[in-house]
Amino acid sequence: MDPRIKEITKEVSNINELPSFKAGDTVIVSYKIREGNKERVQQFQGTVIQRKGSGPTATFTVRKISNGIGIERIFPVSSPFLESITVTKVGVVRRARIFYLRERRGKAARIKEKRH
């Protein structure tokens, strides 16, 4: 990429200070939701399936199971609606993208936890 474009995107984008997390980690993402003229913070807790991209255009995908149905949500890293990210568990996986969790159910979908 052109150095001038990198410099401009760095000035314009507001990249939030995020904790370090990777695929396999369990996180709680707090993000703002607008309903009419009200604004509230909602939390989405799940396993990070992938991190994609770099810089202000980076995204990460979080997957959770709700009432037996898998729900995935893609969050942009530089979104102004992103309030905070809390890492609750650090998982041990050997891949950067763990899409195989989509076919797993119950105990087969568990990820080993890294002990401190």
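Next protein, fold it too.
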Amino acid sequence: MTDAEKRTRILELVRHYADSEHAPKPFVEGESSVPVSGRVYDADDMCSLVESALDFWLTTGPFNDAFEKKLSLFIGTKFALTCNSGSSANLLAMTALTSHLLKDKALKPGDEVITCATGFPTTINPILMNGLVPVFLDVDIPTYNMDVSKLEEALSPRTRAIMLAHTLGNPFNLDAVMAFAKKHDLFVIEDCCDALGATYRGKMVGTFGNIGTLSFYPAHHITMGEGGAVFTSRSLLKRVLESIRDWGRDCYCPPGMDNTCGKRFDWQLGELPQGFDHKYTYSHLGYNLKITDMQAAVGCSQMDKAEQFIAARKRNFQLLKEGLRALEDVLILPEATPHSDPSWFGFPLTVRDGAPFTRDALLIHLNEKRIGTRLLFGGNLLRQPYMIGREYRAVGEMTNSDKVMHDSFWLGVYPGLGEEAIGYMIDTIKTFVRSR
């Protein structure tokens, strides 16, 4: 048997094993759990992973190159760069705006970045980590995105950027945010970690601002286990992002390659001697935030199913909304932002003031029925213990952010949930409400 035949046989066995041992199990009401999220994968994903393992190219390599091309084509940007998580993607994006290569437009310690008071901490943590000052605005209910009505009030002489997430796959008001950014010459970072495939006025989110970010954690639209990406259409920002991701080096040679520029020993930068090896010249304070080629191999296969996954999420969202519409007197149902087509990550709900039950009572009941729930991430982030003593500004009252903290949660809509599971969630919530 030749090596090629051995490889083919190995992959045939992997496919057979995946089909027999990893096939989705049927939903059994009362016995099966209904998680909020999870990895959805098949034999193609496992074969792609094993194929990369057989190559044993452990660092980024051919599969990573292919994945970055697939991703940039899907989103519609010139460049996409993988990294090891969505949180790292946000760190890369924010840190890139401090680069000396941006000259007088580079953000400096003490500059302000407008953001939303609710959401996931690693949307705002890179602001703090770079010595910048987050300026918090309240959240809108029922879109769960930043309330844009106080943008002008948030402006100060130090305002330099806006960093926002498209909450649970629902695009924020890009008309208002981009008009404000253009008027005041501000950078915009779009955190799309929960929003792969969402569009606003027919255009992919992440392509409006300067940089977009994604996560490929198992909970997200596609997965490679751990992993993330940054994307942009600006060559200069791509260069900066790549440098910070790759140890901060000035050299742009791919891993395993040398002398791409043709003058590896001809540079003189900083206070280094003339001819110092460009491969070991560092122009940014950087990290090693790359992924492995095995992760990228899974991502390549998952990208082929992205449209299918997004359609399933939209279907599940709509089933939940129609099924729970009769409960609008006690539950605030989510609404898509005008002009948007969300790629839903979850189905957010808020218990109305005066309802005959609390959010926590409902969550305890759902947990007992094996239905998973999540809070809207960190709730009002200003109330989190790690924010004590931090420098920030809050514009206006955080009334809705506190409401979200006390009364909001979300249900799963991920592709692993079929109509039986969605129906079970609807019936369980209805039964609980009617019993109160």
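About the second fold: The domain at 51-302 is CATH 3.40.640.10 (Aspartate Aminotransferase; domain 2).
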